[in-house]
Write a structure and sequence with these properties.
- The complex is a heterodimer.
- Chain A contains 13 helices and 15 strands.
- By secondary structure, chain A is α/β, with parallel strands linked by helices.
- In chain A, helix 6 links the parallel strand 6 (135-138) and strand 7 (165-170).
- The longest helix of chain A has 19 residues, at 363-381.
- Chain A is globular.
- Chain B has a single domain (2-180), classed as 3-Layer(aba) Sandwich (Pyruvate-ferredoxin Oxidoreductase, domain 3).
- A seven-stranded mixed β-sheet of chain B has the order 2-3-1-4-5-6-7, sandwiched between helices.
- The longest helix of chain B is centred in the first third of the chain and has 14 residues, at 14-27.
- In chain B, 51% of the residues are buried.
- Classes of the chains: A alpha/beta, B alpha/beta.
- The interface between A and B is medium-sized, with 28 and 25 residues.
- Strand 8 of chain A pairs antiparallel with strand 2 of chain B, so a sheet runs across the interface.
Chain lengths: 395, 181
Protein backbone atom coordinates (compact mmCIF):
# COMPACT_ATOMS: atom_id res chain seq x y z
CA UNK A 1 0.00 0.00 0.00
CA UNK A 2 1.19 3.49 -0.77
CA UNK A 3 2.34 5.94 1.86
CA UNK A 4 -0.23 8.49 2.95
CA UNK A 5 -0.52 11.01 5.74
CA UNK A 6 -3.66 11.83 7.70
CA UNK A 7 -4.46 15.52 7.43
CA UNK A 8 -7.30 17.84 8.30
CA UNK A 9 -8.39 19.37 5.03
CA UNK A 10 -11.34 21.36 3.77
CA UNK A 11 -13.18 19.64 0.93
CA UNK A 12 -12.34 22.50 -1.43
CA UNK A 13 -8.65 22.25 -0.59
CA UNK A 14 -8.79 18.48 -1.04
CA UNK A 15 -10.07 19.03 -4.57
CA UNK A 16 -7.35 21.62 -5.23
CA UNK A 17 -4.72 19.10 -4.04
CA UNK A 18 -6.02 16.56 -6.54
CA UNK A 19 -5.89 19.14 -9.33
CA UNK A 20 -2.29 19.97 -8.37
CA UNK A 21 -1.24 16.32 -8.13
CA UNK A 22 -2.76 15.71 -11.57
CA UNK A 23 -0.35 18.32 -13.03
CA UNK A 24 -3.22 20.20 -14.60
CA UNK A 25 -2.09 22.45 -17.45
CA UNK A 26 -4.96 24.91 -17.72
CA UNK A 27 -7.53 26.10 -15.21
CA UNK A 28 -10.35 28.42 -16.29
CA UNK A 29 -12.89 29.15 -13.59
CA UNK A 30 -15.01 31.89 -12.12
CA UNK A 31 -15.67 32.06 -8.37
CA UNK A 32 -19.15 31.37 -7.03
CA UNK A 33 -20.30 30.30 -3.57
CA UNK A 34 -19.84 27.55 -2.41
CA UNK A 35 -17.11 26.63 -4.90
CA UNK A 36 -15.00 29.76 -4.30
CA UNK A 37 -12.41 28.15 -2.03
CA UNK A 38 -11.41 25.74 -4.80
CA UNK A 39 -10.68 28.58 -7.24
CA UNK A 40 -8.95 30.64 -4.56
CA UNK A 41 -6.67 27.78 -3.54
CA UNK A 42 -5.85 26.92 -7.15
CA UNK A 43 -5.03 30.51 -8.07
CA UNK A 44 -2.79 30.66 -4.99
CA UNK A 45 -1.06 27.44 -6.05
CA UNK A 46 -0.43 28.84 -9.52
CA UNK A 47 0.74 32.22 -8.17
CA UNK A 48 3.09 30.55 -5.65
CA UNK A 49 4.52 28.21 -8.28
CA UNK A 50 3.18 25.08 -6.56
CA UNK A 51 1.34 24.21 -9.76
CA UNK A 52 2.75 25.00 -13.19
CA UNK A 53 -0.55 25.78 -14.86
CA UNK A 54 -2.10 28.54 -16.90
CA UNK A 55 -4.85 30.11 -14.79
CA UNK A 56 -7.26 31.87 -17.13
CA UNK A 57 -9.24 34.55 -15.32
CA UNK A 58 -12.57 34.64 -17.11
CA UNK A 59 -15.56 36.93 -16.75
CA UNK A 60 -18.19 34.20 -16.57
CA UNK A 61 -18.76 30.47 -16.36
CA UNK A 62 -19.84 30.44 -20.01
CA UNK A 63 -16.39 31.69 -20.92
CA UNK A 64 -14.73 29.36 -18.40
CA UNK A 65 -16.09 26.32 -20.21
CA UNK A 66 -15.38 27.86 -23.61
CA UNK A 67 -11.75 28.35 -22.56
CA UNK A 68 -11.65 24.77 -21.30
CA UNK A 69 -12.90 23.52 -24.67
CA UNK A 70 -10.21 25.44 -26.55
CA UNK A 71 -7.42 24.45 -24.20
CA UNK A 72 -8.48 20.81 -24.20
CA UNK A 73 -8.64 20.73 -28.00
CA UNK A 74 -5.09 22.10 -28.01
CA UNK A 75 -4.03 19.05 -25.99
CA UNK A 76 -3.91 20.53 -22.48
CA UNK A 77 -5.07 18.83 -19.30
CA UNK A 78 -7.93 21.08 -18.22
CA UNK A 79 -9.88 21.75 -15.03
CA UNK A 80 -12.78 23.96 -14.04
CA UNK A 81 -15.20 24.15 -11.15
CA UNK A 82 -18.46 25.93 -10.45
CA UNK A 83 -21.80 25.64 -8.62
CA UNK A 84 -25.51 26.36 -8.95
CA UNK A 85 -26.17 29.36 -11.14
CA UNK A 86 -22.62 29.13 -12.48
CA UNK A 87 -23.28 25.66 -13.83
CA UNK A 88 -26.50 26.95 -15.38
CA UNK A 89 -24.63 29.77 -17.12
CA UNK A 90 -22.09 27.21 -18.32
CA UNK A 91 -24.85 24.93 -19.56
CA UNK A 92 -24.80 25.82 -23.26
CA UNK A 93 -21.11 25.04 -23.56
CA UNK A 94 -21.22 21.81 -21.51
CA UNK A 95 -22.45 19.82 -24.49
CA UNK A 96 -19.44 20.85 -26.58
CA UNK A 97 -16.62 18.92 -24.85
CA UNK A 98 -18.76 15.80 -24.52
CA UNK A 99 -19.73 15.90 -28.19
CA UNK A 100 -16.18 16.75 -29.30
CA UNK A 101 -14.74 14.06 -26.98
CA UNK A 102 -12.62 16.49 -24.96
CA UNK A 103 -11.69 15.14 -21.51
CA UNK A 104 -12.24 18.27 -19.43
CA UNK A 105 -12.48 17.63 -15.67
CA UNK A 106 -14.91 19.66 -13.57
CA UNK A 107 -15.86 19.70 -9.91
CA UNK A 108 -19.28 21.03 -8.93
CA UNK A 109 -19.97 22.23 -5.37
CA UNK A 110 -23.67 21.44 -5.64
CA UNK A 111 -26.00 24.32 -4.92
CA UNK A 112 -29.69 25.08 -5.20
CA UNK A 113 -31.01 27.24 -8.04
CA UNK A 114 -32.68 30.65 -7.79
CA UNK A 115 -35.33 31.95 -7.17
CA UNK A 116 -35.49 32.51 -4.25
CA UNK A 117 -31.75 32.94 -4.15
CA UNK A 118 -30.05 30.17 -2.21
CA UNK A 119 -26.34 29.54 -1.94
CA UNK A 120 -27.00 26.32 -0.02
CA UNK A 121 -26.76 22.73 -1.14
CA UNK A 122 -29.15 20.65 -3.12
CA UNK A 123 -28.94 18.72 -6.37
CA UNK A 124 -30.93 20.99 -8.66
CA UNK A 125 -27.78 22.06 -10.50
CA UNK A 126 -26.66 18.45 -10.89
CA UNK A 127 -30.00 17.26 -12.22
CA UNK A 128 -30.17 20.15 -14.70
CA UNK A 129 -27.00 18.81 -16.35
CA UNK A 130 -27.80 15.12 -16.29
CA UNK A 131 -28.20 14.89 -20.09
CA UNK A 132 -25.03 16.69 -21.16
CA UNK A 133 -23.00 13.57 -21.91
CA UNK A 134 -20.41 14.00 -19.16
CA UNK A 135 -19.33 11.16 -16.93
CA UNK A 136 -20.70 12.14 -13.53
CA UNK A 137 -19.91 10.81 -10.07
CA UNK A 138 -20.62 11.86 -6.51
CA UNK A 139 -18.50 12.20 -3.40
CA UNK A 140 -19.84 11.73 0.12
CA UNK A 141 -16.91 13.10 2.11
CA UNK A 142 -13.66 14.98 1.60
CA UNK A 143 -11.65 11.82 1.09
CA UNK A 144 -13.88 10.84 -1.79
CA UNK A 145 -13.80 14.37 -3.19
CA UNK A 146 -10.03 14.05 -3.45
CA UNK A 147 -9.97 10.44 -4.66
CA UNK A 148 -12.69 10.84 -7.27
CA UNK A 149 -11.21 14.07 -8.65
CA UNK A 150 -7.89 12.32 -9.14
CA UNK A 151 -9.65 9.35 -10.74
CA UNK A 152 -11.70 11.66 -12.99
CA UNK A 153 -8.58 12.71 -14.90
CA UNK A 154 -7.50 9.14 -15.55
CA UNK A 155 -11.00 8.08 -16.59
CA UNK A 156 -11.66 11.07 -18.85
CA UNK A 157 -8.28 10.89 -20.59
CA UNK A 158 -8.34 7.12 -21.16
CA UNK A 159 -8.02 6.72 -24.93
CA UNK A 160 -11.05 4.42 -24.86
CA UNK A 161 -13.06 7.09 -23.04
CA UNK A 162 -12.19 10.67 -24.07
CA UNK A 163 -15.25 12.16 -22.45
CA UNK A 164 -15.37 15.01 -19.94
CA UNK A 165 -15.91 14.02 -16.32
CA UNK A 166 -17.66 15.82 -13.51
CA UNK A 167 -17.30 15.19 -9.78
CA UNK A 168 -20.14 16.44 -7.60
CA UNK A 169 -19.23 17.52 -4.09
CA UNK A 170 -22.13 18.90 -2.08
CA UNK A 171 -21.74 22.61 -1.45
CA UNK A 172 -20.81 23.54 2.14
CA UNK A 173 -21.31 19.96 3.40
CA UNK A 174 -18.05 19.07 1.69
CA UNK A 175 -16.66 22.28 0.25
CA UNK A 176 -16.52 24.11 3.60
CA UNK A 177 -16.05 21.26 6.04
CA UNK A 178 -12.65 20.38 7.47
CA UNK A 179 -12.27 16.74 8.43
CA UNK A 180 -9.58 14.12 8.67
CA UNK A 181 -8.61 12.33 5.47
CA UNK A 182 -5.63 10.54 3.98
CA UNK A 183 -3.52 12.46 1.53
CA UNK A 184 -0.95 10.54 -0.51
CA UNK A 185 2.60 11.86 -0.78
CA UNK A 186 3.24 13.51 -4.15
CA UNK A 187 5.58 10.74 -5.32
CA UNK A 188 2.94 8.10 -4.54
CA UNK A 189 0.53 9.67 -7.02
CA UNK A 190 3.17 9.81 -9.77
CA UNK A 191 2.27 7.50 -12.61
CA UNK A 192 -1.34 6.97 -11.51
CA UNK A 193 -2.48 9.39 -14.19
CA UNK A 194 -0.52 8.60 -17.36
CA UNK A 195 1.05 11.35 -19.46
CA UNK A 196 -1.77 12.93 -21.37
CA UNK A 197 -1.59 12.43 -25.13
CA UNK A 198 -4.71 13.73 -26.83
CA UNK A 199 -4.82 11.95 -30.19
CA UNK A 200 -6.49 14.76 -32.16
CA UNK A 201 -4.65 17.84 -30.95
CA UNK A 202 -5.21 21.09 -32.79
CA UNK A 203 -2.13 21.73 -34.90
CA UNK A 204 -1.49 24.95 -36.90
CA UNK A 205 0.37 22.90 -39.52
CA UNK A 206 -2.60 20.59 -40.01
CA UNK A 207 -5.63 22.82 -39.51
CA UNK A 208 -8.97 21.15 -38.84
CA UNK A 209 -12.39 22.32 -37.74
CA UNK A 210 -13.92 20.54 -34.79
CA UNK A 211 -17.61 20.19 -34.00
CA UNK A 212 -18.56 22.97 -36.35
CA UNK A 213 -21.46 21.83 -38.51
CA UNK A 214 -23.63 18.77 -39.07
CA UNK A 215 -26.63 18.88 -41.39
CA UNK A 216 -29.35 16.22 -41.02
CA UNK A 217 -27.51 13.69 -43.16
CA UNK A 218 -24.77 13.28 -40.53
CA UNK A 219 -25.99 14.66 -37.17
CA UNK A 220 -27.86 11.51 -36.02
CA UNK A 221 -24.83 9.35 -36.88
CA UNK A 222 -22.67 11.67 -34.75
CA UNK A 223 -25.09 11.36 -31.84
CA UNK A 224 -25.41 7.58 -32.18
CA UNK A 225 -21.63 7.24 -32.16
CA UNK A 226 -21.46 9.49 -29.10
CA UNK A 227 -24.07 7.50 -27.19
CA UNK A 228 -22.52 4.13 -28.04
CA UNK A 229 -19.10 5.39 -27.00
CA UNK A 230 -20.44 6.98 -23.82
CA UNK A 231 -22.31 3.88 -22.67
CA UNK A 232 -19.21 1.78 -23.18
CA UNK A 233 -17.08 3.85 -20.78
CA UNK A 234 -18.13 1.90 -17.68
CA UNK A 235 -15.36 -0.75 -18.01
CA UNK A 236 -12.74 2.00 -18.08
CA UNK A 237 -14.33 3.71 -15.07
CA UNK A 238 -14.20 0.40 -13.21
CA UNK A 239 -10.59 -0.14 -14.31
CA UNK A 240 -9.50 3.22 -12.93
CA UNK A 241 -11.32 2.73 -9.63
CA UNK A 242 -9.74 -0.75 -9.34
CA UNK A 243 -6.28 0.66 -10.05
CA UNK A 244 -6.90 3.41 -7.51
CA UNK A 245 -8.01 0.89 -4.90
CA UNK A 246 -5.02 -1.36 -5.54
CA UNK A 247 -2.71 1.61 -5.06
CA UNK A 248 -4.37 3.47 -2.19
CA UNK A 249 -6.64 0.90 -0.55
CA UNK A 250 -9.90 2.70 -1.16
CA UNK A 251 -12.16 0.99 -3.67
CA UNK A 252 -15.10 2.63 -5.40
CA UNK A 253 -18.07 1.12 -7.24
CA UNK A 254 -20.84 2.55 -9.44
CA UNK A 255 -23.42 1.52 -6.84
CA UNK A 256 -22.20 1.33 -3.25
CA UNK A 257 -23.92 -0.89 -0.72
CA UNK A 258 -24.08 -0.50 3.05
CA UNK A 259 -25.49 -3.25 5.30
CA UNK A 260 -27.50 -4.70 2.41
CA UNK A 261 -27.16 -8.30 3.60
CA UNK A 262 -30.70 -9.74 3.56
CA UNK A 263 -32.17 -6.24 3.35
CA UNK A 264 -35.84 -6.20 2.43
CA UNK A 265 -35.98 -2.42 2.54
CA UNK A 266 -33.33 -0.29 0.88
CA UNK A 267 -32.79 3.44 1.09
CA UNK A 268 -31.16 5.10 -1.91
CA UNK A 269 -29.18 8.31 -1.44
CA UNK A 270 -26.63 10.35 -3.35
CA UNK A 271 -23.90 12.59 -2.01
CA UNK A 272 -23.04 14.06 1.37
CA UNK A 273 -26.12 12.97 3.33
CA UNK A 274 -25.24 9.32 2.73
CA UNK A 275 -23.07 8.90 5.80
CA UNK A 276 -25.78 10.38 8.02
CA UNK A 277 -28.13 7.88 6.35
CA UNK A 278 -25.74 5.09 7.39
CA UNK A 279 -26.24 6.09 11.01
CA UNK A 280 -30.01 5.79 10.53
CA UNK A 281 -29.53 2.34 9.00
CA UNK A 282 -27.36 1.34 11.97
CA UNK A 283 -30.10 2.40 14.39
CA UNK A 284 -32.81 0.53 12.48
CA UNK A 285 -30.63 -2.58 12.14
CA UNK A 286 -30.06 -2.46 15.91
CA UNK A 287 -33.85 -2.64 16.28
CA UNK A 288 -33.82 -5.75 14.11
CA UNK A 289 -35.18 -4.21 10.90
CA UNK A 290 -33.97 -5.59 7.57
CA UNK A 291 -32.85 -2.30 6.06
CA UNK A 292 -29.82 -1.30 4.07
CA UNK A 293 -28.48 1.62 2.10
CA UNK A 294 -27.41 1.94 -1.50
CA UNK A 295 -25.79 5.02 -2.95
CA UNK A 296 -25.36 5.95 -6.58
CA UNK A 297 -21.66 6.79 -6.89
CA UNK A 298 -21.82 6.87 -10.69
CA UNK A 299 -24.69 8.93 -12.03
CA UNK A 300 -23.72 9.00 -15.71
CA UNK A 301 -23.52 6.74 -17.51
CA UNK A 302 -26.31 5.28 -15.37
CA UNK A 303 -25.08 1.98 -13.93
CA UNK A 304 -28.13 -0.10 -14.91
CA UNK A 305 -26.51 -3.49 -14.36
CA UNK A 306 -25.01 -2.70 -10.95
CA UNK A 307 -28.17 -0.93 -9.78
CA UNK A 308 -30.49 -3.80 -10.76
CA UNK A 309 -28.15 -6.25 -9.10
CA UNK A 310 -28.11 -4.17 -5.89
CA UNK A 311 -31.90 -4.13 -5.52
CA UNK A 312 -32.77 -7.56 -6.91
CA UNK A 313 -33.86 -8.98 -3.55
CA UNK A 314 -35.31 -5.78 -2.15
CA UNK A 315 -39.05 -5.44 -1.56
CA UNK A 316 -39.23 -1.69 -0.92
CA UNK A 317 -36.83 0.85 -2.35
CA UNK A 318 -36.96 4.30 -0.74
CA UNK A 319 -35.44 6.99 -2.94
CA UNK A 320 -34.36 10.42 -1.69
CA UNK A 321 -34.15 13.25 -4.20
CA UNK A 322 -32.53 16.57 -3.30
CA UNK A 323 -34.21 18.21 -6.27
CA UNK A 324 -37.69 18.78 -7.63
CA UNK A 325 -38.50 18.02 -11.24
CA UNK A 326 -41.52 20.29 -11.28
CA UNK A 327 -44.62 18.41 -12.30
CA UNK A 328 -42.78 15.09 -12.18
CA UNK A 329 -41.54 14.54 -8.61
CA UNK A 330 -37.97 13.53 -7.96
CA UNK A 331 -35.69 13.02 -10.97
CA UNK A 332 -33.62 10.24 -9.40
CA UNK A 333 -36.77 8.39 -8.42
CA UNK A 334 -38.08 8.64 -11.99
CA UNK A 335 -34.85 7.24 -13.37
CA UNK A 336 -34.73 4.45 -10.85
CA UNK A 337 -38.28 3.45 -11.72
CA UNK A 338 -37.50 3.46 -15.42
CA UNK A 339 -34.38 1.37 -14.82
CA UNK A 340 -36.58 -1.25 -13.12
CA UNK A 341 -39.61 -1.13 -15.40
CA UNK A 342 -38.67 -4.12 -17.57
CA UNK A 343 -37.54 -6.26 -14.66
CA UNK A 344 -39.71 -9.29 -13.88
CA UNK A 345 -39.05 -8.98 -10.17
CA UNK A 346 -38.78 -5.47 -8.83
CA UNK A 347 -39.29 -3.63 -5.56
CA UNK A 348 -41.95 -1.08 -4.80
CA UNK A 349 -40.31 2.31 -5.29
CA UNK A 350 -41.30 5.15 -2.98
CA UNK A 351 -39.82 8.58 -3.61
CA UNK A 352 -39.22 11.45 -1.21
CA UNK A 353 -37.86 14.91 -1.78
CA UNK A 354 -35.77 16.47 0.98
CA UNK A 355 -32.74 18.54 1.79
CA UNK A 356 -33.67 21.35 -0.59
CA UNK A 357 -31.69 24.58 -0.37
CA UNK A 358 -29.43 23.35 2.41
CA UNK A 359 -32.09 22.01 4.79
CA UNK A 360 -30.29 19.38 6.87
CA UNK A 361 -31.55 15.82 6.77
CA UNK A 362 -30.99 14.30 10.18
CA UNK A 363 -31.00 10.65 11.23
CA UNK A 364 -34.67 11.00 12.23
CA UNK A 365 -35.45 12.20 8.71
CA UNK A 366 -34.16 9.00 7.16
CA UNK A 367 -35.96 6.88 9.74
CA UNK A 368 -39.17 8.78 8.97
CA UNK A 369 -38.78 8.14 5.23
CA UNK A 370 -38.37 4.42 5.74
CA UNK A 371 -41.35 4.14 8.13
CA UNK A 372 -43.50 6.32 5.93
CA UNK A 373 -42.54 4.36 2.81
CA UNK A 374 -43.88 1.17 4.35
CA UNK A 375 -47.24 2.87 4.94
CA UNK A 376 -47.26 4.14 1.38
CA UNK A 377 -46.58 0.65 0.05
CA UNK A 378 -49.68 -0.57 1.90
CA UNK A 379 -51.64 2.19 0.20
CA UNK A 380 -50.18 1.25 -3.20
CA UNK A 381 -51.22 -2.36 -2.60
CA UNK A 382 -54.76 -1.10 -1.88
CA UNK A 383 -54.66 0.49 -5.32
CA UNK A 384 -54.24 4.06 -4.13
CA UNK A 385 -52.11 6.62 -5.95
CA UNK A 386 -49.09 7.90 -4.07
CA UNK A 387 -47.60 11.35 -4.49
CA UNK A 388 -43.98 12.18 -3.90
CA UNK A 389 -43.72 13.56 -0.38
CA UNK A 390 -41.51 16.51 0.49
CA UNK A 391 -40.18 15.80 3.95
CA UNK A 392 -39.74 18.29 6.74
CA UNK A 393 -41.67 21.07 5.04
CA UNK A 394 -43.80 23.41 7.18
CA UNK A 395 -47.31 23.89 5.87
CA UNK B 1 -18.10 12.15 20.30
CA UNK B 2 -18.18 15.65 21.70
CA UNK B 3 -20.27 18.24 19.84
CA UNK B 4 -19.52 21.92 20.26
CA UNK B 5 -21.47 24.95 19.06
CA UNK B 6 -19.45 28.14 18.82
CA UNK B 7 -21.72 31.14 19.05
CA UNK B 8 -20.28 34.48 18.09
CA UNK B 9 -20.74 37.41 15.78
CA UNK B 10 -19.71 37.51 12.14
CA UNK B 11 -16.07 38.63 12.06
CA UNK B 12 -15.18 37.35 15.55
CA UNK B 13 -13.47 34.29 14.14
CA UNK B 14 -15.73 31.51 15.39
CA UNK B 15 -15.24 29.52 12.17
CA UNK B 16 -11.47 29.90 12.44
CA UNK B 17 -11.64 28.74 16.06
CA UNK B 18 -13.52 25.60 15.05
CA UNK B 19 -11.08 24.92 12.22
CA UNK B 20 -7.98 25.37 14.40
CA UNK B 21 -9.25 23.01 17.09
CA UNK B 22 -10.27 20.47 14.43
CA UNK B 23 -6.76 20.59 12.98
CA UNK B 24 -5.22 20.12 16.44
CA UNK B 25 -7.48 17.16 17.19
CA UNK B 26 -6.60 15.55 13.86
CA UNK B 27 -2.89 16.09 14.56
CA UNK B 28 -3.44 14.18 17.82
CA UNK B 29 -4.82 11.29 15.79
CA UNK B 30 -8.45 11.96 16.64
CA UNK B 31 -11.32 12.35 14.21
CA UNK B 32 -12.71 15.85 13.86
CA UNK B 33 -15.10 17.84 11.73
CA UNK B 34 -15.49 21.61 11.61
CA UNK B 35 -18.44 23.08 9.84
CA UNK B 36 -19.45 26.72 9.46
CA UNK B 37 -23.09 27.66 9.76
CA UNK B 38 -23.47 27.82 6.07
CA UNK B 39 -24.16 30.98 4.24
CA UNK B 40 -22.94 34.47 3.57
CA UNK B 41 -21.41 35.80 6.75
CA UNK B 42 -22.45 39.23 7.90
CA UNK B 43 -20.15 41.15 10.19
CA UNK B 44 -21.73 41.58 13.60
CA UNK B 45 -24.65 39.24 13.05
CA UNK B 46 -25.05 36.24 15.37
CA UNK B 47 -23.40 33.26 13.74
CA UNK B 48 -22.71 29.65 14.68
CA UNK B 49 -19.80 27.40 13.89
CA UNK B 50 -19.81 23.70 14.67
CA UNK B 51 -17.12 21.32 15.83
CA UNK B 52 -17.22 17.58 16.42
CA UNK B 53 -14.35 15.55 17.86
CA UNK B 54 -14.30 11.80 18.33
CA UNK B 55 -11.38 9.91 19.85
CA UNK B 56 -12.00 6.67 17.99
CA UNK B 57 -14.75 6.73 15.37
CA UNK B 58 -14.88 8.47 12.01
CA UNK B 59 -17.51 11.22 12.16
CA UNK B 60 -20.34 10.39 9.80
CA UNK B 61 -23.09 12.81 10.75
CA UNK B 62 -23.06 15.79 8.42
CA UNK B 63 -25.50 18.39 9.71
CA UNK B 64 -25.56 21.36 12.02
CA UNK B 65 -25.43 20.53 15.73
CA UNK B 66 -28.87 20.87 17.28
CA UNK B 67 -28.05 19.72 20.85
CA UNK B 68 -24.43 20.45 21.70
CA UNK B 69 -22.38 19.08 24.57
CA UNK B 70 -20.65 22.43 24.79
CA UNK B 71 -21.78 25.92 23.93
CA UNK B 72 -18.86 28.31 23.50
CA UNK B 73 -20.05 31.91 23.59
CA UNK B 74 -17.65 34.46 22.15
CA UNK B 75 -19.85 37.48 22.84
CA UNK B 76 -21.71 37.59 26.17
CA UNK B 77 -24.34 39.85 24.61
CA UNK B 78 -25.49 36.85 22.58
CA UNK B 79 -26.60 34.87 25.62
CA UNK B 80 -29.90 36.69 25.41
CA UNK B 81 -30.19 36.26 21.62
CA UNK B 82 -32.06 33.09 20.74
CA UNK B 83 -32.74 30.24 23.10
CA UNK B 84 -29.24 28.83 22.82
CA UNK B 85 -28.48 27.54 26.32
CA UNK B 86 -31.65 25.44 26.50
CA UNK B 87 -30.47 23.49 23.45
CA UNK B 88 -27.53 22.08 25.40
CA UNK B 89 -27.52 18.39 26.22
CA UNK B 90 -28.55 17.60 29.79
CA UNK B 91 -25.02 17.49 31.14
CA UNK B 92 -23.84 20.18 28.78
CA UNK B 93 -21.49 23.02 29.51
CA UNK B 94 -21.55 26.69 28.59
CA UNK B 95 -18.25 28.50 28.20
CA UNK B 96 -18.55 32.29 28.18
CA UNK B 97 -16.30 35.23 27.51
CA UNK B 98 -17.40 37.68 30.19
CA UNK B 99 -16.15 40.44 32.46
CA UNK B 100 -18.61 39.35 35.11
CA UNK B 101 -17.59 37.12 38.00
CA UNK B 102 -17.90 33.37 37.65
CA UNK B 103 -20.46 33.23 40.47
CA UNK B 104 -22.62 35.89 38.88
CA UNK B 105 -22.65 34.02 35.57
CA UNK B 106 -23.28 30.74 37.36
CA UNK B 107 -26.46 32.21 38.84
CA UNK B 108 -27.57 33.60 35.47
CA UNK B 109 -26.98 30.64 33.15
CA UNK B 110 -29.13 27.57 33.43
CA UNK B 111 -26.50 25.00 32.62
CA UNK B 112 -25.06 22.27 34.78
CA UNK B 113 -21.52 23.39 34.22
CA UNK B 114 -20.13 26.70 33.16
CA UNK B 115 -16.70 28.08 32.46
CA UNK B 116 -15.91 31.78 32.42
CA UNK B 117 -12.99 33.93 31.38
CA UNK B 118 -12.47 37.59 30.55
CA UNK B 119 -11.26 36.77 27.05
CA UNK B 120 -11.83 40.31 25.80
CA UNK B 121 -9.57 41.67 28.52
CA UNK B 122 -6.88 39.12 27.68
CA UNK B 123 -7.16 39.72 23.94
CA UNK B 124 -6.86 43.48 24.34
CA UNK B 125 -3.85 43.13 26.65
CA UNK B 126 -1.96 40.40 24.77
CA UNK B 127 -2.99 40.88 21.15
CA UNK B 128 -3.88 44.54 21.33
CA UNK B 129 -7.06 43.62 19.46
CA UNK B 130 -10.63 42.95 20.58
CA UNK B 131 -10.72 39.55 18.79
CA UNK B 132 -11.32 36.69 21.19
CA UNK B 133 -11.39 33.53 19.09
CA UNK B 134 -7.86 32.30 19.79
CA UNK B 135 -8.10 33.39 23.42
CA UNK B 136 -11.30 31.39 23.86
CA UNK B 137 -9.52 28.26 22.62
CA UNK B 138 -7.63 28.41 25.93
CA UNK B 139 -10.94 28.40 27.80
CA UNK B 140 -12.29 25.54 25.68
CA UNK B 141 -9.20 23.40 26.25
CA UNK B 142 -9.22 24.12 30.00
CA UNK B 143 -12.93 23.35 30.36
CA UNK B 144 -13.13 20.25 28.13
CA UNK B 145 -9.62 18.85 27.60
CA UNK B 146 -10.72 18.27 24.03
CA UNK B 147 -7.11 18.62 22.83
CA UNK B 148 -3.81 19.27 24.56
CA UNK B 149 -2.90 22.93 24.78
CA UNK B 150 0.43 22.35 23.02
CA UNK B 151 -1.38 20.62 20.13
CA UNK B 152 -2.90 24.00 19.28
CA UNK B 153 0.47 25.56 18.52
CA UNK B 154 1.20 23.97 15.13
CA UNK B 155 -2.18 24.82 13.58
CA UNK B 156 -1.96 28.38 14.93
CA UNK B 157 1.55 28.82 13.59
CA UNK B 158 0.45 27.60 10.20
CA UNK B 159 -2.60 29.85 10.15
CA UNK B 160 -1.16 33.03 11.67
CA UNK B 161 2.56 32.95 10.85
CA UNK B 162 4.32 35.84 12.55
CA UNK B 163 1.42 36.76 14.84
CA UNK B 164 0.95 33.17 16.02
CA UNK B 165 3.11 33.73 19.11
CA UNK B 166 0.82 36.45 20.46
CA UNK B 167 -2.27 34.33 19.82
CA UNK B 168 -0.68 31.35 21.55
CA UNK B 169 0.22 33.59 24.52
CA UNK B 170 -3.38 34.83 24.72
CA UNK B 171 -4.66 31.26 24.56
CA UNK B 172 -2.29 30.18 27.34
CA UNK B 173 -3.30 33.10 29.54
CA UNK B 174 -6.98 32.26 29.07
CA UNK B 175 -6.21 28.63 29.89
CA UNK B 176 -4.74 29.75 33.21
CA UNK B 177 -7.51 32.19 34.05
CA UNK B 178 -10.59 30.19 33.05
CA UNK B 179 -12.78 29.19 36.00
CA UNK B 180 -14.81 25.99 35.64
CA UNK B 181 -17.53 24.70 37.94
Amino acid sequence: MKKEKVVGLEGSFAVAEAVRLANTDVIAAYPITPQTHIVERLSEMVAEGELDAEFICVESEHTAMSACVGASAAGARVFTCTAGQGLELMHEVLYIPSSMRLPVVAVIANRALSAPLSVWCDHSDMMAVRDIGWIQMLAENNQQAFDLTLCAYRIAEDSDVLFPAMVHIDGFYLSHVIEDMSLPEDEEVAGFIPEYEYPFTLDPDKPVSMGCYAPPFIYPEAKKAQEVAFESTIPQILETWKAFGDRFGRYYAPVEKYRMENAKIALLTMGSCSETAMLAIDELRAKGEDVGLIRLRLWRPFPFKEFREAVKDVEVLVVLDRCVSFGMGGPVCSEVKSALYDQQKKPHVVGFIGGLGGRDILIEGFEYMIRSALEKVKAIERGEEIETEMIGVRE
Amino acid sequence: MIEICIYGRGGQGGVTLAELVAHAAILEGKHAQSMPSFGPERRGAPVFAFLRVDETERIKVRAEIKEPDVLLVLDPGLLGVGDVVSRLKKDGMTIVNTIKSHDEMKSKIEANKIATVDAMGIARAVLGLPIVNTTMIGALVKATGIVKLESMEAPMEERFGKVAAKNIAAMRKAYEETVVS
